[in-house]
Amino acid sequence: MKIIYTKDYQAMSAEGFKVIKHIFDTVPNPVINTTTGASYDGIFELMVKAINDGSIKLENCVLMNLDEYISPRHASYNVYTYMHKKLYDLIKSRPKVIGLMDASVTDRQAELNRYNQILAKYPRDLQIVGLGVNGHLGANEPGTSFDSRLFFAKSDESTVQSTMLYNGLTRDEAPEGMMTLGLADIMDAKQVLVTASGKRKAEAVKGMIEGPITIDVPASILQKHPNVVVVLDEDAASLLTQRK
């Protein structure tokens, strides 16, 4: 596990962007699966700039997503809306393939089957994940099996609260579940990128990097992955005792 320590959110975003840019620069037909949310807002801003100035070429890229809220298709807070607002509506070119989940469907098994076909067709060069305050990855909440595969998951209350905080939702408005890649799916990627910012993530960061590998901290499974890059700001790294 390679850990990059940065001063603040802006520097964290710049270092995370470098990891993504390296994939575009070195892989002819890159397949990238990304998450969304506060930890990646700055990185998406850098990606938009790089795509529009031509330093990132999207035409041969496959771009997918890690998860999606169980919500109406065009809800203001969901991944579909985020990806259009933060990326697709702002760029001059398009990826070869855009793989967005649809967790608004009534036939959930059909949607799982559809997305599993995309995952099988396009092995991921880079899996981008965020770290939940409770140590989750995607919607793999504490207690989820390390063998989990693409599924519909119920969110822990801490995850619901984070969604409310980021999106300005009331408790009644907040979604309570997601369609998500499982931990085994995440581990299948050739490389994994994790970023974390702020003191509220510090306990989860410590558990992911220094704690035992346990389903109580789902992100701890990344200790077993051969190619993980973790980018932290000072606050997120503040509880680590083995900084190098």
TrEMBL record:
What range(s) does the Glucosamine/galactosamine-6-phosphate isomerase domain occupy? Answer: 37-226
One Pfam annotation, family name?
Glucosamine_iso
The alphabetical list of record keywords is: Hydrolase
Q: Which domain of life is it from?
A: Bacteria
Q: Which GO terms describe its molecular function?
A: glucosamine-6-phosphate deaminase activity; identical protein binding
Can you supply one Gene Ontology CC term for this chain's record?
cytoplasm
One Gene Ontology biological process: carbohydrate metabolic process
Q: Does the keyword Translocase apply?
A: no
**Keyword Coiled coil appears in the UniProt entry:** no
* PANTHER family, A to Z: GLUCOSAMINE-6-PHOSPHATE ISOMERASE (PTHR11280:SF5)
The protein, known as: Glucosamine-6-phosphate deaminase
Give the source lineage, highest ranks first: Bacteria, Pseudomonadati, Pseudomonadota, Gammaproteobacteria, Orbales
